[in-house]
Amino acid sequence: MALRESATFGRGVIDDIQRAAETGVYDIRGWGAKRAVPHFDDLLFLGASMSRYPLEGYRERCDTDVVLGDRNARYPLHLQTPVTIAGMSFGALSAQAKEALGRGASEVGTSTTTGDGGMTPEERGQSKHLVYQYLPSRYGMNLADLRKADAIEVVLGQGAKPGGGGMLLGQKISDRVAEMRTLPAGIDQRSACRHPDWTGPDDLAIKILELREITDWEKPVYVKVGATRTYYDVKLAVAAGADVVVVDGMQGGTAATQDVFIEHVGIPTLAAIPQAAQALQELGLHRKVQLIVSGGIRSGADVAKAMALGADAVAIGTAALIALGDNSPRYAAEYEALGSAAGMYDDFQDGRDPAGITTQDPELSARLDPVEGGRRLANYLRVLTLEAQTIARACGKAHLRHLEPEDLVALTVEAAAMARVPLAGTTWIPGVKSHA
Amino acid sequence: MESMTFDLSTTTVRALNAELHDPSVKSYEVLHPEGAHAVAAGIDSGVAVDVHGHVGYYCAGMNDGGSVTVHGNAATGLAENMMSGTVRITGDASQSAGATAHGGLLVIEGSASMRCGISMKGVDIVVGGSVGPMSAFMAQAGRLVICGDAGDGLGDSIYEARLYVRGRVGELGADCVEKEMRDEHRAELAELLAAAGLEHDVTEFRRYGSARRLYHFTSEHSGSY
């Protein structure tokens, strides 16, 4: 008789249970959700034919620039591509990796973002547009750096762990990281999940006012949320004064979070974008308060789909690290020595990254040349932009932001319901009354 | 002109802060704050500011070098994330006074509400009265002196900050323990009290700090996390 694996207690589950029984600790790892969820792959574009008029590829303009934060700030960000680099901390990443992100982003005229560990001179120096994250921990937060930032991102949560704080395990707390965070070297460092000096949206409005006062109303203030109750969170963020709202879906990455948190808390990016767009539209502020979407952006098609659903820009994290060389087959033997494999390595918490990206080890970090890394990232960002333009032209759009939900259909009922676009070949949007 | 006066009943906080960020004189008087938020936030020079009345949230927020005195009470987040300088308040402070502050001296002559010194990162805070619950939560560095009582949860998940309390202490937070008062502690406490202009017998104080049991994750401490 053929062997039969349990659908409920599969081999992976059995491994998890036995690992927990053996170690007595939960699994902490990096990366984002690895489970399959409805995603951009479940959407298709309706290119122009008889009823729509396409633009000539390579000849007719399809612009890609975006202005972020022009509601209140004297100096909004004007980016040449709507693909930005998401917040990732020095501490989680090596100084070389942070510098490479800055170099690559600057080369194509987009922004990069600090993380839960303060602003490094390397990053500031190499980043034309730098967004400074304002996190519950306030590690490394100081007045001088705040004024050096081009925008401020108040972080309430991230897609990998909405409602969770941060952690950086002792093996990554080098002397420099410890000093920037005002903590002893080598300890397992926890970051709070709630801000220390405000509670709720009414307080946040006053906090944003303070940040504007401190920076003389020069800088856009973003509010970042992990995708959960996105419709309400976006409305409250805007009411609190956000110039830009960042929504990070559950596929968004992390440097170190409990596996159970990554896989079971939050909603897919696809489900979050229409909620955010609806909230902004109801407030009459869609395209006025800009929406940045992150969590699982890999290709220009993903960029175009996110924008068609209502985003003004997107942010990439995991994909940016991959562009720098993360999980490259070049390090296959070393990944195997760590008990992993190229393409599956997610032990970002461990500090032994062979690619020299998610580590503070001086020898490993030195493997990543920031100049070469920056070049690779710039190439990748250009490809994303070109791919998105290709699709936009096919849909007859002279600017990426002209993409709209009407350009999309869904391949599955689930994606149709979440993205609020019709199932391909039908007029059916589950949950939305048909007008056909 | 040595001093400038801003009457917030006739001018704005924006005008005040713009002047304080690019000061033309060394000292300022602020009248009728009437609970305004972000008064004197973002000072980055050695100016002196006297505020006559009660202030709202985030007074002297992120102060870096200024000497701000509030002759009244303050709402949430007084001197939050201060880098250096001095902030003194003659009355009481609401929640999260001195939150995440990296340096400087915060003197609260009255009492402070919950979460005083939360996530403090090097600031010195001296409270003439008592503090509410969860004060010095996740306090990383610096000194917190409480001349009155401390509420429950003092020093929960504390790192390397040192806490001195003269009065009663409620239930201590996770990983916070009473520690021996040695001569060097009595000396630094005397210095802090002198800097704050408060007179107390240092032998009446007890010292609290981290047991450092939560510095490394282990499931055996799951009840403490």
TrEMBL record, chain A:
What Enzyme Commission number(s) does the record list for this chain? Answer: 1.4.-.-
Under CDD domains, the record lists: GltS_FMN
Q: Name one Pfam family in it.
A: Glu_synthase
Protein's name according to its UniProt entry: FMN-binding glutamate synthase family protein
> Which InterPro entries does the UniProt record give?
Aldolase_TIM, GltB, GltB_archl_type, Glu_synthdom
Write out the similarity annotation.
Answer: Belongs to the glutamate synthase family.
Segments traversing the membrane: none
GO MF annotation, one: oxidoreductase activity
For the region Disordered, give the residue spans.
102-125
From which organism does this entry originate? Actinomycetospora termitidis
UniProt entry keywords in alphabetical sequence: Oxidoreductase
Listed Gene3D superfamilies: Aldolase class I (3.20.20.70)
**Domain annotation Glutamate synthase: ranges:** 71-325, 354-397
Q: Does the keyword Oxidoreductase apply?
A: yes
Automatic annotation (TrEMBL), chain B:
CDD domains annotated for this entry?
GXGXG
As recorded in UniProt, coiled-coil segments are: none
Q: Which InterPro entries match?
A: Glu_synth_asu_C_sf, Glu_synth_lsu_3
Regions crossing the membrane = none
Task: Output the SUPFAM superfamilies linked to this UniProt entry.
Answer: Alpha subunit of glutamate synthase, C-terminal domain
What is the superkingdom listed in this entry's lineage? Answer: Bacteria
- The name of this protein is Glutamate synthase
Organism the protein comes from: Actinomycetospora termitidis
